[in-house]
């Protein structure tokens, strides 16, 4: 993967979450202006093999929900925030790989569902309403909804101790919401249609590919592992190799007295702030570590340089 990234990493789409939000805005505009057009944009595999190839892309414009404008704004801001956080921590290339793999697996699952439908003999239902209408009705399950659920689950595995305000009031750690996310997906898998089961399976496969790629098991991601371990699970260990090549062994840099993590900017430690998250920056040489408040606001340094904050309004 590292060789592949060196060759094609320059083509990775930066701020991919923002691009996806823009697609949603276009989809919402279509919904409120000409909602009937959305029927011809879904990921309908039957229609695709019969010439409507634009559906391979147009389904990405269909927003997950159009219930009310307030919910839409909150949803888009939320997924933009967690997507941006994942891109900064994983890197643009690996975040691109995760998103586009999810898209590709969703497309593949739609065609597998069509083949399975023919295999198990759904001809009776198809004969009553027509094959195109049959696949058109159930193809709505193949949307970005489950991809977004996968993004949140990946965020929960990467930032398990992060706190969010449920209903804007109740503080809850993300790892518990991630667990709830899985339970809900499993419920929909059992109770849902065949199309939903294939779409949900594609999401789980995408998560498995991401984390098993580094030799980690998904079941261990909710444990109390250090943020260093969680970070390198996400990036596949490439950042660790780079940092060790550029600087001393991080284990030798850990202070005594049982303290494992220390921010290179503010000096706070895990012992002083047990709820504070710490991460190593793969772009800084010398194995520099930062707390959650300074991970995205510091200036990347070379070996021997002193870590410092970026100037106000700067872009790190």
In terms of DSSP E residues, the strand content is under 5%
Mean pLDDT: 76
CATH architecture of the largest domain: Up-down Bundle
Give the % helix: 40-55%
Can you count the beta strands?
A: 4
Global outline: elongated
The radius of gyration computed from the alpha-carbon positions, rounded to a whole number of angstroms, is 22 Å
**Low-confidence stretches at least 5 residues in length (pLDDT < 50)?**
217-259
Structural class: mainly alpha
Strand order of the largest sheet: 1-2
Main beta-sheet strand count, sense and barrel state: 2 strands, antiparallel
Fold-level CATH name of the largest domain: Rhomboid-like fold
Number of domains: 2
Span between termini:
25 Å
> How many DSSP helices?
14
Descriptive tags:
14 helices; two-stranded antiparallel ribbon; 2 domains; elongated; mainly alpha; Rhomboid-like fold; 4 strands; 4% strand; 316 residues; single chain
SSE topology:
Blueprint: H1 2-8, H2 16-33, H3 45-49, H4 55-58, H5 69-90, H6 92-119, H7 123-129, H8 131-138, H9 144-158, E1 163-166, E2 170-173, H10 174-191, H11 194-212, H12 227-235, H13 238-246, H14 250-253, E3 278-280, E4 289-291
Antiparallel strand pairs: 1-2, 3-4
Helix pairs in contact: 2-5, 5-6, 5-9, 6-9, 6-11, 7-8, 9-10, 9-11, 10-11
């Amino acid at each position: 993967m590292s060789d592949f990234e060196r060759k094609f990493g320059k083509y990775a789409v930066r701020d991919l979450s923002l691009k996806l939000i823009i697609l949603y805005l276009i989809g919402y505009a279509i919904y409120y202006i000409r909602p009937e057009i959305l029927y011809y944009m879904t990921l309908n595999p039957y229609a695709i093999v019969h010439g409507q190839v634009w559906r391979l892309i147009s389904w990405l414009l269909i927003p997950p929900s159009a219930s009310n404008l307030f919910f839409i704004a909150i949803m888009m801001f939320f997924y933009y925030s967690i997507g941006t956080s994942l891109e900064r921590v994983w890197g643009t290339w690996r975040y691109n790989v995760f998103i586009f793999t999810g898209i590709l697996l969703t497309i593949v699952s739609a065609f597998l569902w069509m083949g399975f439908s023919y295999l198990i003999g759904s001809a009776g239902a198809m004969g009553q309403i027509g094959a195109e209408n049959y696949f058109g009705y159930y193809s709505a399950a193949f949307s970005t909804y489950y991809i977004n659920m996968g993004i949140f689950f990946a965020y929960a595995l990467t930032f398990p101790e992060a706190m969010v305000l449920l209903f804007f009031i109740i503080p809850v750690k993300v790892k518990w919401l991630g667990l709830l996310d899985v339970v809900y997906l499993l419920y929909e898998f059992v109770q849902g249609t065949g199309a939903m089961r294939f779409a949900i399976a594609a999401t789980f496969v995408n998560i498995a590919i991401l984390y098993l790629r580094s030799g980690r098991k998904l079941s261990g991601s909710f444990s109390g592992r250090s943020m260093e371990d969680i970070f390198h699970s996400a990036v596949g260990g490439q950042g660790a190799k780079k940092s060790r090549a550029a600087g001393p062994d991080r284990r030798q840099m850990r202070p005594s007295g049982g303290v494992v993590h220390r921010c290179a900017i503010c000096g706070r430690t895990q012992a002083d702030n047990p709820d504070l998250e710490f991460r190593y920056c793969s772009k800084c040489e010398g194995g520099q570590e930062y707390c959650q408040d300074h991970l995205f606001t510091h200036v990347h340094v070379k070996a021997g340089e002193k870590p410092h904050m970026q100037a106000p309004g700067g872009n790190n």
